[in-house]
Amino acid sequence: MNKLQIMKIARNTGRSLLTEIESKELMKLAGINVNDTKLAASGEEAISISRQIGFPVVLKIASPDVVHKSDAGGVKLNLKTSKQVGKAYDDIMQAITAKYPQAIIQGISVQKMARPGVEIIIGISTDAQFGPVLMFGLGGIFVEIMKDVSFRIVPLTRYDAAEMIREIKGYPLFEGYRGQEPVNLSILEEWLINISDFVEKNPELQEIDLNPVFAYKDGALAVDARVILRANP
Ligand code: ADP
Ligand code: MG
Fold first, then answer.
1. Buried b (16+ CB within 10 A) or exposed e, 213-230
2. DSSP 8-class letter at 33
3. CA-CA distance, 81 to 83, in Å (whole number)?
4. How many CB atoms lie within 10 A of CB 212?
5. Ligand 1: residues whose CB is within 6 Å?
6. Does 137 have pLDDT greater than 60?
7. Which atom of ligand 1 is nearest to the CA of 119?
8. Percent of the chain at pLDDT above 90?
9. Which of 51, 112, 138, 147 reaches 20 to 30 Å from 213, CA-CA?
10. What is the structure's pLDDT at 7?
11. What value does the CA radius of gyration of the chain take, rounded to a whole number of Å?
12. Cα(85)–Cα(110) distance, rounded to whole angstroms?
């Protein structure tokens, strides 16, 4: 899928929220490393994809009407056998149809369970006055409870990117904490610049949410992505 095709899908369906798979395809074009994510239309297909990519896997609801997948019972992690995958497929479908009877469901996405890293979030929001604004922070409870994030107005310089990573309170986590490996910060700086450039070139993008990104010693991987397009770019 290329960028034009994705934009077209959204236009034709009148959607502004892209699904995880569509959002990841778009983020790939921006130079972001996303994990391979495939759509399954049945439990059997989810099992055969899982066998191809290798266990353990993660299943997630694929619906443009479900914004927060795990809140709705739409995410099942660390599935180790075909049997677990089959059951997770049915459980997700049941939970989502109970909670969102009207939702359009494309299927269920299948991806490899990623190895743990330092969880971060990277986001774009559009401010009425300043236009696109980039956010960077630690993921999980750090963003929800501590609000430990930094902001810069797009476009970013390399200096902005370096600075916004270093000014969050949780920065010491990136340097290696209690035996955890340190994180490759130059890759993260590159990502921030790539996203800033991509957003600058594509004014139809209203919001981007990469949450979480796993940051490692040797790279980074976005395992969830959500893109919202502007109604009238
Ligand atoms: P949502 O944000 O819509 O609730 P996510 O795709 O972010 O759904 O999944 C919820 C949580 O599950 C993530 O915050 C992350 O901790 C975990 N997770 C999601 N995908 C993976 C994956 N491929 N590997 C490991 N953990 C994952
Ligand atoms: Mg998420």
1. bbbbeeebbbbbbbbbbe
2. -
3. 5
4. 20
5. 35, 58, 60, 68-70, 75, 77, 111, 113-114, 211-212, 223-224
6. yes
7. 16
8. 85
9. 51
10. 77
11. 18
12. 9
In order of their start, the domains of the chain are 3-34+115-229 (3.30.470.20), 37-112 (3.30.1490.20)
Helix locations, 54-177, DSSP H: 82-99, 141, 158-166
- Tell me how long the chain is: 233
Concatenating the DSSP letter of every residue in 88-115 gives: HHHHHHHHHHHH-TT----EEEEEEPPP
Q: Distance (Å, rounded) from C-alpha 16 to C-alpha 67?
A: 11
Any idea which residue has 């899908």 for tokens?
A: 9
Ligand nearest the Cα atom of residue 209? 2
Pairing of strands 118-127, 75-79: unpaired
Strands (E), 170-218: 205-216
pLDDT at res. 226: 97
State in Å: Cα 222 to ligand 1 middle: 10
| Residue 88 pLDDT greater than 80, yes or no | yes
Instruction: Please tell me what DSSP assigns to residue 222.
Output: E
Please state the atom number of ligand 1 nearest to the C-alpha of residue 66. Answer: 3
Give the per-residue pLDDT at 232: 65
Q: Is 7 within 8 Å of 204 (Cβ atoms)? A: yes
The amino acid sitting at 161 is A
What confidence tens digit (pLDDT) does each residue in 207-227 have?
999 999 999 999 999 999 999
CA–CA distance, 138 with 146 (Å, rounded to integer) = 9
